[in-house]
Each structure stands twice: as structure tokens, then as C-alpha cells.
Amino acid sequence: xxxxxxxxxxxxxxxxxxxxxxxxxxxxxxxxxxxxxxxxxxxxxxxxxxxxxxxxxxxxxxxxxxxxxxxxxxxxxxxxxxxxxxxxxxxxxxxxxxxxxxxxxxxxxxxxxxxxxxxxxxxxxxxxxxxxxxxxxxx
Length: 139
Fold this sequence. Notes:
Elements: H1 6-9, H2 14-22, H3 26-44, H4 50-53, H5 63-82, H6 88-106
Helix pairs in contact: 2-5, 3-5, 3-6, 5-6
């Protein structure tokens, strides 16, 4: 697997599910992880260097990216077993993450991720109006 360690998915009630699906073969987990990473790259394309962020290891990994990938992987693992019986909390987390990534794609949310062009710092745009006497000119 690229970014997630298999043991990070094998926690609590997910342990038996993941063991059943993967049969101790991480190939399936790697394919799901690749699909999830591709999806996240699609939402962040042109803004963030996800490939660079994926090179980080252990405590240097971005927690938000780690959480998104893990949550999406758990959703897709459940979907492989029975798409009609995905627990509501897993489906809700999937939906919330998707809304978040859609906002990232639109630029309404800007996570503290490595920008694609590392020479450009992220900044906050301030929108306002001028108090000039020429604001309301009648023509």
C-alpha cells in the first residue's frame, strides 16, 4: 500500500471485515487505496501536490489526508461485501468527506496542504468594497 498501513485499517470491528476481504493479501487493499487516492487527486488537481504529500511517512503524514483516505477505504471495503447494507455512520462519513472535497475543489475551503507550486504561498482573499465617493455614479 502507498500511504496507509494495513494495520491502521485493522482496528475494532473492521479487523474481521478486512481480514475476510483481503484474506491476508494486501493487493485488494492496495487497489482500493489507489482508487481512493485517485479520487482525492481529482478533487485537488491543480491546487495541491498530493503525490508529494504521499511521500511523507509515519508522524509526518498529514492527518487530514490520512483520515480521508482511511474513511473512504473503509466505505469501499464495506461496499465490496454488501453495498446495500453499509452502516449509516460509514455512509454519512463518506458523504461528509465528499462535500468537504467538493468545497476544496471549488476553492471555498483551503486545507493546509502542500500547494502544487511550492513557490506560491496560500493566502486568504479579502473581498470588500471601496468607500470612494465614486461608488454610486449615475450615468
